[in-house]
Amino acid sequence: MKTIVSVIGTRPQFIKVAPIAYSLHKRYHHILIHTGQHYDYQMSRTFFKELDIPKPEKNLGIASTLHGEQTGRMLIRLEQVLLKEKPNLVIIYGDTNSTLAGALAASKLHIPVAHIEAGMRSYNKMMPEEQNRIIADHLSDICFCSSSISANNLRKENIKRNIYIVGDVMLDTLRYAVKKTRNDAAFLKSHKLALRGYILVTVHRAGNVDHKERLASIVNALNQCNKKVVFPVHPRTRNNLKKFKLLPRLHKRNILLLEPVSYMNMLKLEKSAEMILTDSGGVQKEAYFLKTPCVTLREETEWVETVKNGWNTLVGTNTKTIVKIISGLKKPSHYLPLYGNGKASAKITNVINRFL
Ligand code: UD1
Ligand code: UDP
């Protein structure tokens, strides 16, 4: 039996690997290597439990530190694992430091690399994610794209071979989870939330939350909008809200601060929100899948199709602009399935079968 290693390490990667793990296990020895980049229960274990993802063969326990050190330590440990396991293929997901380390470790050992969610570009090289995904794409032997726009981005960079538009694996996971979840109403009720009676907020991009002025500007917008706000707070954001002494400004009656919520609960919150305010890539997409209008706290996005189709509005972080856009946001009347049909993992497995 051939061996495939998936390198994962962060919250969105656990969600992306789930349907791939279901699909590969019948035919391959599929080994999950967790770098340990995310480690809190609510940022890691919960996803394995809820989504029935097999336990990783190894957790490298790298955890949080500076980017260079974190990526370097992952590279050292991944090289050892890959030398031992000798996989026929390494799969990497998205654009985190774990993605970059996986791409480097495998390609230096001449092990073929497949990149899921390839070709995404913000054209903002200040973002660590943009740096990671450019290198990951250029080192990959197979690029799996969520849409034709990302495939074209690769071609513009002269990556021409083994590009497959397969749709988005996060839609596969969402479909699987929606079938498993019940009791949306009970969950909303437990938090005293009415259907379409709140805005769901997530924010964690370094470019937004590591800068006091930008984070304060977002906090002020949440204060000034006259809607109920539900805000599951990412650990990076919580640390910075504390550091910049902004947390007291969020202790308002209309703002519900939560620890990061489980995936199933997140879907319930996304599905029933009036709108979503976010800087997350995955949440922008899920808003689209669930037909909840999205306002993105960035100047640019990789998920440009959602903006072109009217379901996503880029607002940046200016308080006045955010408040104005939120108060006038309308739900578009048309909808196109932009990211496939929820069967991306089957298409990916077929390509891998042919490749190996
Ligand atoms: C990382 C990814 C980002 C992705 C995000 C998903 C990089 C460069 N960034 O950002 O692309 O969108 O994950 O959520 O790879 N922390 C905890 N507990 C945890 C994890 C993190 O407390 O389980 C805190 C630590 O203080 C850490 C900070 O959060 O320093 C940031 O974590 P890190 O993994 O470095 O980056 P993210 O912001 O999570
Ligand atoms: N998510 C979650 N709980 C939360 C916030 C997000 O389960 O409290 C899920 C969300 O549904 C999506 C993924 O995490 O599937 C997005 O991850 P994140 O925003 O951390 O990273 P990004 O997608 O921006 O890389």
TrEMBL record:
CDD domains: GTB_UDP-GlcNAc_2-Epimerase (cd03786). InterPro entries: UDP_GlcNAc_Epimerase_2_dom, WecB-like. This is UDP-N-acetylglucosamine 2-epimerase. Residues 25-352 form the UDP-N-acetylglucosamine 2-epimerase domain. Belongs to the UDP-N-acetylglucosamine 2-epimerase family. It comes from Candidatus Kerfeldbacteria bacterium RIFCSPLOWO2_01_FULL_48_11. NCBIfam families: wecB. It comes from the Bacteria.
